[in-house]
Write a structure and sequence with these properties.
Layout lengths: L1 H23 L5 E12 L4 E9 L4 E8 L1 H10 L6 E11 L2 E4 L2 E2 L3 E8 L4 E8 L2 E19 L1
Antiparallel strand pairs: 1-2, 1-9, 2-3, 3-4, 4-5, 5-7, 6-7, 7-8, 8-9
């Protein structure tokens, strides 16, 4: 009887010890960061235009600086226009695509569309459930990083 209790106690001690070891092992996860840089827009010109997609945080950050011509064009119609800009949007993955949050109403909305390892940034427009997309920008560089967290 005493021998059986010792074996059970030893078994429980080993399980507790293993659980403590497992809980103390740092868990590393890899998060992907994609940077699209030197992007040229079909409509406007920029000194700097880059998109940073942080898939771990589900955030897209766009850093852009208007050139003088584009800045003057937008400043004429909107006094709040700044030469140096930073825009963030939530993103999510769907069918191997990376999409930004929808902007607009349920019957009409737009969103940015990114494909992995593709230098083109598209804008997707949906009107009454009819989708369409066109190329918004073409980038010269794409970099993908796996960051450890």
């Amino acid at each position: 009887m005493l021998l059986l209790k010792n074996k059970i106690f030893d078994s429980i001690l080993i399980k507790i010890f293993l659980i403590l070891i497992i809980l103390n092992i740092p868990i590393h996860s890899l998060a992907e960061l994609i940077i699209l840089s030197e992007c040229q827009n079909n409509k406007d010109t920029f000194k700097k235009n880059e998109y940073v997609l942080d898939l771990d945080k589900s955030l897209m950050t766009r850093n852009f600086i208007y050139d003088k011509k584009t800045y003057k064009k937008y400043r004429l119609t909107d006094i709040n226009t700044q030469e140096i800009n930073l825009v963030t949007k939530f993103i999510y993955e769907e069918n191997n695509l990376i999409l930004s949050d929808k902007v607009g109403y349920p019957q009409f909305y737009t969103q940015l569309l990114f494909e992995r390892n593709n230098l083109e940034i598209k804008i997707k427009t949906v009107i009454n459930d009819e989708p369409g997309s066109y190329v918004l920008s073409k980038c010269k560089r794409i970099e993908t990083f796996d960051k450890e967290s």
